[in-house]
UniProtKB/TrEMBL annotation:
The keyword DNA-binding applies. It comes from Waterburya agarophytonicola KI4. This is Type IV secretion system DNA-binding domain-containing protein. It is found in: Cell membrane. Pfam families: TrwB_AAD_bind (PF10412). One of its GO terms (molecular function) is DNA binding. The keyword NAD does not apply.
Length: 202
């Protein structure tokens, strides 16, 4: 049995890129041209230029693996880097955008695992010390919650009483003998010799 497609109401799906681009360009004809620099590169997705008044709206990019999501985002980043009127915060989980677009003269990296990263201090965060400690020290499901809570409390208290990395290091050296003396307890996963240097001294 063959079904015939019938349009009832709502938005129609348009497959012609020429018609779609004509509709998008029509937006530019309606906006106040004095508020936009039309000499700047226009943002585009899959070859379709976005109207200037829609550039700062949300874009949802979804598709199966290999469908071109990364390429579409990379094209946008390339165009945005040519636009002096935009600033971009890029969450680059795999590092591929950093590898392709990073410019040490104009870009900033915030990644404690990258030697090019900006310095960081817990005092610069809007989150509370307790929240920062909770994000650094996860629950260990094989031990009593008391131990992870105690480790968080310790780190939170260190943050509360310090203002820079040097003070944090000094505090860690003070508590380290106590920490080492408890290496045979359930507290061990949180108090080994390398824990603070790995997770706290960013």
């Amino acid at each position: 049995m063959k079904f015939k497609e019938q349009f009832l109401r709502g938005v129609k799906i348009e497959e012609s890129t020429n018609k779609i681009q004509a509709l998008l360009d029509r937006h530019n004809d309606k906006i106040d041209k004095s508020r936009h620099d039309f000499h700047l590169p226009q943002l585009s997705i899959a070859g379709l230029r976005l109207p200037h008044n829609l550039e700062d709206l949300g874009i949802f990019c979804v598709g199966s693996p290999g469908s071109g999501k990364t390429q579409a985002i990379a094209k946008l980043i390339s165009e945005l880097k040519q636009r002096p009127d935009y600033r971009v915060v890029c969450f680059d989980r795999n590092g591929e955008f950093t590898a392709n677009f990073y410019n040490e003269k104009q870009d900033l990296i915030f990644n404690p695992k990258d030697k090019r990263s900006l310095g960081w201090s817990h005092n610069w965060e809007s989150a509370s010390n307790e929240t920062i400690a909770a994000s650094i020290i996860p629950d260990h499901h094989h031990t009593d919650k008391f131990w992870s809570d105690s480790a968080r409390n310790l780190l939170s208290e260190i943050y509360e009483r310090t203002s820079n990395k040097a003070e944090i290091e000094g505090s860690c050296h003070m508590v380290q003998p106590y920490m080492i003396s408890h290496l045979s307890t359930p507290f061990e996963p949180y108090l080994d010799r390398n824990f603070l240097s790995k997770h706290c001294l960013v």
